[in-house]
Design goal:
- By secondary structure, this protein is an alpha+beta fold.
- The chain has two domains: 178 residues, 3-Layer(aba) Sandwich (NADH Oxidase), CATH 3.40.109; 46 residues, no CATH class.
- The protein contains eleven helices and six strands.
- A four-stranded antiparallel beta sheet has the order 2-3-5-4, with helices on both faces. A two-stranded antiparallel ribbon has the order 1-6.
- The chain is globular, with a radius of gyration of 20 Å.
- The chain binds flavin mononucleotide.
- The site of flavin mononucleotide (FMN) has 13 residues, from strand 4.
Length: 242
């Protein structure tokens, strides 16, 4: 299991081999067995099988290669609609407009998705998460007919790998693991070290070679805000983040 986890690399190009609905069921079943906060199971997954819908999803999320080439495309949504229906059975309503509910929904979705990722990789498939779904969350909600309470967070493409990527070196363990107290003094030494590791990786990997470091990339990525409409999109789906 640990070998499987540490050999993960996202796969973006797949062979033209569809994944059967039975296999998708098997993978989703593995996903459902992830732990769930208060057992809310606050997620739904839309398996996109219709070609036209897939085309539009690919276009809207700006990740065409993965989505159009995949054997299976799953859109992961935080879901309080089903919990609302549960309360309706008891003539009650639920309140999910708080930041806490958004966090719980996102955590539950991520745990389920990562189980599915690992289950897929254990069967020899490659996967790629598609956060690009949040490039057009309102349009994708309309496309998939997501009711209020259901928020698309990301997708996952799964398929038989046609092109494998080298495993990306992670941050040194000491950078992410703290003992008893958070210690940011160590980053001044560890981050330049990691930059050297990533520079070597980027210049030697089998495809898409480049000259870059991790700290440069992160700085570029984070120096300006991203997807600033997300607050409004969450509110549109009933997540008001009070
Ligand atoms: C939530 C999430 C969203 C992501 N979105 C995209 C995406 O839209 N397109 C893409 O090509 N890769 C996407 N990725 C993949 C990351 O780029 C990738 O995991 C990261 O660079 C580490 O590389 P590795 O997965 O090969 O180890 C996403 C990953 C996560 C966890």
């Amino acid at each position: 299991m640990i070998n499987l986890l540490t050999s993960h690399a996202s796969v973006r190009k797949y062979k033209d081999e569809p994944i059967s609905k039975e296999t998708v069921y098997e993978l989703v079943n593995a996903g459902q067995h992830a732990a769930s906060s208060h057992f809310v199971q606050s997620y739904s997954i839309v398996h996109v099988t219709d070609d036209e819908t897939k085309e539009q999803l690919a276009e809207l999320s700006k990740n065409k290669v993965q989505i159009l080439g995949a054997g299976a495309v799953l859109v992961f949504c935080s879901d309080y609609r089903r919990l609302e229906k549960a309360a309706e059975l008891h003539d009650e309503s639920v309140e999910y407009g708080y930041a806490e509910n958004t966090l719980v929904g996102a955590i539950d979705v991520a745990l389920c998705a990562q189980n599915i990722a690992i289950a897929s990789e254990s069967k020899g498939y490659g996967i790629c998460y598609i956060g690009g779904v949040r490039n057009a969350p309102d349009e994708i909600s309309d496309l998939l007919k997501l009711p209020k309470g259901v928020m698309p967070l990301f997708a996952m493409t799964i398929g038989v790998p046609a092109q494998e990527n080298d495993v990306k070196p992670r941050l040194p363990i000491e950078a992410v693991l703290h003992e008893n107290e958070y210690d940011d003094s160590k980053y001044d030494e560890l981050l330049p070290q990691y930059d050297e590791t990533m520079k070597a990786y980027y210049s030697q990997r089998s495809s898409n070679r480049k000259v870059s470091t991790w700290t440069e990339q992160m700085t570029d990525f984070l120096k300006s805000p991203k997807r600033t409409y997300m607050g409004e999109s969450l509110a549109r789906q009933g997540y008001n983040n009070k």
